[in-house]
Each structure stands twice: as C-alpha cells, then as structure tokens.
C-alpha cells in the first residue's frame, strides 16, 4: 500500500460517520484522494459535505471510521505535527499579544529567545503587521487576525498547509489581498496545500486542481485540472476570458450538487 | 450531561462585582453629604443604643456602646487583641492557601480527564452538598483544638469554591485552541501550560477572590466550636461568662476584619480587571 505512490497526502476509501443522538450520521465518503508534493489542491463543496473533516483527519485530530489516511506514505495515527493548520474559526490565543501568538510554534520547538524574536518579527513584516506586534487579537480587525494566524502557521515552516475556508469571513477586496499573499508564499516555497472552500472562483484562482465534493455524505464528484499558468495575479485573473470560461464550466459541474445540498 | 456541573455558586457570585462597580459613581456624586449622613446615622444609632440599655431593654441582652468600647480598649491595652487577631488571621491565610492549592490542582486534573471526572463526580457533589461546618467535630477528634483544625475547616470550604471554578474553567477551554497547538507539536505539558491554564485563569481568579471571606468564616466557626485563642474564641468565652459587652466587642472586631477583607477583594478585583483590559 505504501509503495503505490509518492503522494504527500493520500486518502484510501476513507469514510467518517458521527453518532448524533443515537443515530449514525454519515458525514464523509468513502473518498479516495491523492495530493502530490508541492501541489495546491482545492476541495470544493457545499456546506456540510465533510470538507473540514477531511482536513481534521489529515491533521490527525480525527480518526477515519474506515479506510486509511496516509501522510508521506505513513498512516496518520496521531496528531500530525508536520502540517500547518489554518482553521475556519479564530484560534489565536486571546491573552497573548500578536507577537506572542506567532511565537507559540517556535516556543514549542524550543527556539531560543533572541532567535525567536527575530523570526517572529520577520513573519509579522511578511504579513504587514510589524506595527501591531504588541496588540491583543481582540484589538485587531477580522482581516488582521487572519493575517496573524497565517503568520503563525508559516513561522514554523511546515511543508504542508491545511486551510479551512480561511478567507471566508473577509470582504471581497481583503479576500483578494490575502489570496495573493498566499499565492506569493506558495510560489516562493512550493508547499503542499489542501485548501477547503465553497467559493468556486477562489478554488480556481489558487489551486492546481479542484476536487469537487458532493452533498453529504461527501464523495468526490469530479476533479478539475486548473489550466492556468503560474505565477498568478488574482486581480487581473478574474477578468481573463480563460478564467471566466473555466468558472462557467465548473459551475455546470457543480450545479446539480448545489441543488441537492440545498434540498437537504 | 456532566455530573459535576450541578452546583455552580461561583458563577452567580462572580456577577456581583460588576453591579457593585456600577453603583460607585452614584456615591461619588456627593461624597461629603453621604459621609455626613452615614456619620449621623452611626452616632444616632449608638446614642439610642446607649440610652435604651438598662432603661427599655435589660443591659444583660444588649450591653451598651460605652461598655463595649471599654472592653475593646482593655483588650487593646493588654495586647490580648493582637494575639487573638494574629491567630485568626494565621488560620484564615493558611487555610486559604491550602484550600486554593489543592482545589486548583484537583480542578485541573479532573477538568482534563473526563474519565476521572465521571468517577469522582458523584462523590465530590455529595461531599460538597454537606454543610462543611458540620465537619468541625470530626476535625476536633482528629487534630484537637489547635490551629490545624481551623486551617482544615477553612481549607475545605475554600477547596470546593476554587475546585469548581477551576474545573469549570478548564472544561470551558476551547478545544480548537488545544487542537491547533497540538498540531504545532505541543506535548501534554505544553498544552496545559500554554493553553489550558492561561485560558482557565480568569475562572481560577474568580474562585480565589470569592473564597477569601469564606476562609475567614471557616476559621471563626472553628474557633467558636473549640479553641483557646482567636476572635471566635473571644466571642465564645465572653458569652460563656455572660459578658455581653465582650461578645459585642468581638463581633465589632470581626466586622472590621471582614470589611478589611472586602476592601482587599475590591482592590484585587480592580487590579485584575485592569490587567485584563490591556
């Protein structure tokens, strides 16, 4: 099984069910999925189709009810510390300053004080928050908090990023700024990314490949190779004919799924 | 859902300081007038007391302010007061720290272990439902009438207050925060130190704050039960000698002591809220 491929992340017939007030609810799958090293894959699907569950299982925070999840060819059986995880909800520590939050992964890895401070400073500069190092998360806007979370995820240089609708709560302009920032990071470091979203344009904008999940229990309905060049510029890309045509094509693919999801 | 979430008096008590703070500006409006009214009220009451004693009510029951002042002065002059005050304070403070430390530790451990919480839950609820004061005779059997028995009585009361607050605080820690820190490679110890304790700290502080006056209650009740020193002893031994003035004098000292604790509490409250908002 391990020898079959050199995939970074692999799902083999993975399914997940939850027990809710006695009844068993099928949340996901069974799905099979492969993400190559350095590949940017977007998981696109309606709400409640188990997209977040997929990330949680990759991070080792959840066990599959059946099937296997492999990371670098090895089954994920405990918390996967080689991933950086950006959750949908805010998970900054509210009692710590911005710099204190970004420092957490480095503290855990045992970096010395001076090196740590320097690295945190760089990380904050890279997301444009150098002037806010001493602020508390509660004093920042939603967009700034997202950038702090992004900086915290990147500071320890994980080789794989798991992102769960990270820009979902932001306004349209800010969203594009953040998307561009992410693309720049990816372009420079070529990390493996598994990016969950329900925003079709966002999926196309960012990913090499869009995997469409159906309504609950989520199954892979289609995989869509995004034939757009790199590096990309989200601001001009949105008006390009090739992009618009692709968006339309993907819409058609998803339409039936969305209708089904709404009906539930 | 959780067997241990049956009684949570700390939460109710925790709301009180905010209401008190809202009252403060009203008093501050005319502090001089209010102070004058208070002085008139106090002295009027004392004068009425003095006049009524022996005239309308037997002095044996209510004594009189002049006699009480006399008694207080006697204790003060002989140095007796300081000795008893010191004993009561010592019991209160040690009892507070013993109860706080054990309560915090137990709350942390049980809050993090659903299994332990399930196993110990019913027992803790049962023991907590017991009026702790009723344990005094048992503690006297075990430790005699010295300091350990009062420390234990105060400590048991403080334990439960701090325990429940810590337990609730630890349980209400956001699991997402814990998970994200775990993906960063945090060990169990690091999760406890970096996420759980800081997150629960506000709850713990509330528990510590509200248990300060309870520590005093525990110590004094212990003294009233059996002792040879302390303010509670002063009150009890005065009553045993039908010395009403002595009883009132003891109560006056306790009132001042409790007021000092309340003031200390307010000071801590103000300072913790200040550090929270920065």
Question: Care to describe what's here?
Answer:
The complex is a heterodimer of chains A (264) and B (278). Chain A has 264 residues and is an alpha/beta fold. Chain A folds into 2 domains: 2-82 and 160-263, Rossmann fold, CATH 3.40.50.300; 90-158, no CATH class. Chain A has helices at 51-58, 98-108, 113-126, 142-155, 172-189, 200-206, 234-237, 241-263; strands at 9-20, 23-35, 40-44, 66-71, 74-75, 83-86, 160-164, 192-197, 209-213, 220-225. In chain A, strands 6-7-8-3-9-10 form a 6-stranded mixed β-sheet, with helices on both faces. A 4-stranded antiparallel β-sheet of chain A has the order 2-1-4-5. Chain B is mostly helical and 278 residues long. Chain B has 2 domains: 22-52; 62-277, MetI-like fold (Orthogonal Bundle). Chain B contains 12 helices and no strands. Chain B has helices at residues 9-29, 31-52, 59-62, 65-78, 80-112, 114-129, 136-143, 147-171, 175-183, 188-225, 231-240, 244-277.
Descriptors:
heterodimer, A: 264 residues, alpha/beta, Rossmann fold, 6-stranded mixed beta sheet, 4-stranded antiparallel beta sheet, 38% helix, 24% strand, B: 278 residues, mainly alpha, MetI-like fold, 2 domains, elongated, disordered N terminus
């Amino acid at each position: 099984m391990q020898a079959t491929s050199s995939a970074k992340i692999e799902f083999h017939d993975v399914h997940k069910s939850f027990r809710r007030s006695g009844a068993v609810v099928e949340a996901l799958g069974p799905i099979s999925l492969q993400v190559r090293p350095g590949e940017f894959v977007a998981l696109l699907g309606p709400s409640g189709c188990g997209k977040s569950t997929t990330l949680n299982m990759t991070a080792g925070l959840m066990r599959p009810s059946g099937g296997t999840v492999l990371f670098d060819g090895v089954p994920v059986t405990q918390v996967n510390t080689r991933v950086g995880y950006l959750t949908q909800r805010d998970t900054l520590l509210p009692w710590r300053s911005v710099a204190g939050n970004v420092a957490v992964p480095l503290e855990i890895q045992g970096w010395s004080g001076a090196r740590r401070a320097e690295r945190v400073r760089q990380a904050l500069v890279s997301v444009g928050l150098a002037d806010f190092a001493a602020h508390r998360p509660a004093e920042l806007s939603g967009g700034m908090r997202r950038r702090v979370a992004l900086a915290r995820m990147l500071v320890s240089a994980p080789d794989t990023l798991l992102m769960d609708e990270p820009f979902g709560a932001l306004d349209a302009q800010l969203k594009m700024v953040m998307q561009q920032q992410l693309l720049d990071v990816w372009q420079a470091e070529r990390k493996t990314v598994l990016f969950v979203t329900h925003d079709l344009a966002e999926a196309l904008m960012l990913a090499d490949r869009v995997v469409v999940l159906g309504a609950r229990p989520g199954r892979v309905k289609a995989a869509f190779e995004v034939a757009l060049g790199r590096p990309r510029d989200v601001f001009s890309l949105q008006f390009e004919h090739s992009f618009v045509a692709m968006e339309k094509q993907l819409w058609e693919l998803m339409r039936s799924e969305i209708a089904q999801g709404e009906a539930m | 859902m959780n067997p241990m979430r049956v009684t949570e008096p700390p939460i109710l008590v925790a709301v009180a300081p905010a209401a008190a703070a809202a009252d403060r500006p009203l008093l501050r409006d005319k502090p001089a007038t209010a102070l004058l009214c208070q002085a008139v009220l106090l002295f009027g009451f004392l004068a009425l007391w003095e006049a009524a004693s022996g005239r309308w009510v037997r002095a044996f029951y209510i004594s009189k302010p002049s006699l009480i002042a006399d008694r207080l002065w006697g204790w003060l002059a002989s140095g007796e007061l300081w000795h008893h005050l010191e004993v009561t304070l010592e019991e209160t403070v040690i009892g507070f720290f013993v109860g706080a430390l054990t309560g915090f530790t137990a709350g942390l451990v049980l809050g993090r272990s659903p299994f332990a919480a399930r196993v110990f839950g019913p027992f803790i609820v049962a023991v907590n439902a017991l009026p702790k004061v009723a344990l005094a005779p048992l503690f006297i059997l075990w430790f005699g009438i010295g300091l350990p028995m009062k420390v234990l009585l105060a400590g048991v009361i403080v334990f439960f207050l701090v325990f429940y607050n810590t337990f609730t605080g630890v349980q209400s820690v956001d699991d997402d925060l814990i998970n994200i820190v775990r993906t960063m490679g945090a060990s169990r110890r690091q999760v406890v130190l970096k996420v759980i304790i800081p997150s629960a700290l506000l709850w713990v502080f509330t528990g510590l704050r509200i248990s300060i006056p309870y520590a005093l209650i525990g110590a004094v009740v212990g003294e009233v039960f059996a002792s040879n020193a302390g303010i509670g002893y002063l009150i009890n031994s005065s009553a045993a000698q039908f010395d009403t003035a002595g009883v009132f004098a003891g109560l006056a000292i306790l009132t001042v002591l409790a007021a000092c604790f309340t003031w200390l509490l307010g000071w801590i409250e103000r300072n913790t809220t200040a550090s929270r908002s920065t």
